[in-house]
Amino acid sequence: MLNKNLTRRRMIAIAATAAGSVLLSGGRIARANDAVRWRGSALGAQVSLEIYHPDRAQAERLVRECLAEVRRLEQQFSLYQPDSAICTLNRTGMLVAPAPDMVSLLKRSLYFSELTGGAFDPTVQPLWSLYANHFSSDRPDPNGPSDALLAEALAKVGREGLLVSDGRVALVKHGAAITLNGIAQGFATDRVVDTLRQAGLSTTLVDMGEVRAIGARPDGAAWHVGLADPDRPGALAGTVDLVDRAVATTAGAGFRFEATGRFTHLFDPATGRSPSAFRMVSVVAPTATEADALSTAFSLMPLPHIREVVSRRQGVQARLVTSEGNLLVYDS
What we know:
Strand order of the largest sheet: 2-3-4-8-9-12-13-14-15
Low-confidence stretches: 1-32
Shape: globular
Order of helices and strands: EEEEHHEHHHEEHEEEEEEHHEE
């Protein structure tokens, strides 16, 4: 049976952190050298914090404060918590007096949808449900759902069917549903960064499913972030250096509905099919929200459109590994 709780991707790994670092699983705080580190799970991904602060007790308090903020956001954005705001919206078609965070993230989602010509689309959840149900059935057709069922699901997709205001969020198409899995982890990462900056921190690495650096490392060098190879567990496809920047990576191999990889968690909202032009797409951007949304969208877009979007952004770099294994890098 298909495990529907698997995350859409987990393609970013931390590489070359401070010597002697120790990361403990199970949601525990670890102390190593001058850093306080935490590792656990949130928003359907393995996450970590690395905080440098002269007062260790204060650092540990900040870790707990950041995690409380992430848990709060999970109550808004998680598809795996039945009582979350997004699950309520998908079940009832409406949120009255939505939380400001939900309104903010949905408005950002619609902004990036417009920017990318609809490639980023939070309303593709009916496609996920279609493929999940198909490949969870007994002896599913290896060619995927029928054309009729695909057309039925596509009729529920489209950002024009998502209405967002400060007082109400509504899905106007019958059976419509949204997912924020292509942007929520970046949004949570940025909220954690905001919390730490307000506390006066200037040297921190945050990984809430996407990675964002506050400043440089304590020795002044850039943070080295390894980009995990989607086809070779434990191997890296490359590294990026971050100083006050974020990076997000999307790859179809992050989740496959079947062994061949023809059907993945990535859906083209125009066709309902999974793209195959890129093995992985990484985006470096000023914020994790932007990096997250653009890495998702670029996985679905042709190269000329990707170049055009990158040229209009500040501080954005797109790193694209084609299906043939070639690396293409575009800078704004």
